[in-house]
Specification:
The chain is α+β, with helices and mostly antiparallel strands. It contains ten helices and seven strands. The relative contact order is 0.06.
């Protein structure tokens, strides 16, 4: 081979190697493989023309497998029945699925770069922050029930599990809605406590009776008027603590006033 032909061949091989490296780098952008490692994948220059197609086919196949895995992961992430979030160490939402957006009551693009902690209700914030900080120390946090607050002011109770990601600076968090009955029960408990405080703070005697006249509830003032304990009153009926001559009078008041309009006029009676 003359000198001119050798120079042309060397330039051709160099160009092939350069083009191959460029293609390999494009195929492997997401793999984080260094150029020196890519060069190690290349065969020796004397066999480069013969093996270049086989090498490119193998890398193309590897890239297709990688893309298929990414699509499968994306489908699993998006179609998961739980709300899924990828959060930064500070709680900023990096990625989420549609269920997560539904739980927070906003569209996905609006939630990217928002802080997840913003949606934690005040009463759940301390517990959540403790759990969230634990994730980056012990790598997981699970079985946590918190209340989320949406932008419209409504609230939803969720069960949270979270684990640190391989990069150690982000975490995966799943949120599943707890039966709304829990919210209703909690609201009822608060109402009952409020009612109980009001009930016991009244300066007047207060008593509940059922339609058969059985005493179901009373406050301390009422019990002190009669000298009975709460347990003793629960075994008595309204007629038991009312003189007999008042029975027909009160029966008439119940049938003609209470059952007709829901209340009676003020009247006096004996106990």
């Amino acid at each position: 081979m003359n000198k001119g032909a050798r120079i042309i061949e060397e330039k051709t091989l160099s160009q092939i190697e350069s083009d191959t490296l460029l293609e390999l780098q494009q195929l492997n952008d997401d793999w984080d493989i260094s150029e020196s490692d890519l060069r190690n994948l290349l065969p020796e220059p004397d066999v480069l023309p013969a093996n270049i197609k086989a090498l490119k086919d193998k890398l193309l196949l590897a890239s297709q497998i990688s893309e298929a895995a990414k699509r499968k992961y994306s489908a699993l992430f998006e179609n998961n029945p739980c709300g899924l979030f990828i959060l930064s160490e500070k709680g900023v939402i990096i990625e989420l699925n549609s269920v997560g957006a539904m739980i927070l009551g906003m569209k996905k693009p609006q939630l990217i770069n928002r802080n997840f902690k913003f949606f934690i209700s005040e009463e759940s914030r301390t517990e959540f922050n403790t759990c969230f900080n634990t994730i980056f120390k012990t790598q997981c946090c699970s079985n946590l029930g918190v209340k989320l607050r949406k932008l419209d002011g409504s609230q939803v109770f969720v069960h949270i599990d979270a684990a640190i990601n391989e990069d150690k600076v982000t975490c995966y968090l799943s949120a599943s809605i707890i039966a709304e009955q829990k919210l209703a029960d909690e609201s009822l408990q608060r109402a009952e406590k409020k009612y109980r405080r009001l009930h016991e703070s009244l300066m007047d005697g207060f008593v509940y009776v059922d339609m058969d006249g059985r005493i179901t509830e009373s406050n301390e003032i009422y019990r002190s008027m009669l000298g009975y304990t709460a347990g003793e009153l629960e075994k008595l009926s309204y007629q038991d603590i009312t003189p007999e001559h008042w029975h027909p009078i009160e029966a008439k008041i119940v049938y003609e006033q209470v059952l007709v309009r829901g209340f009676s006029a003020v009247y006096e009676k004996e106990y």
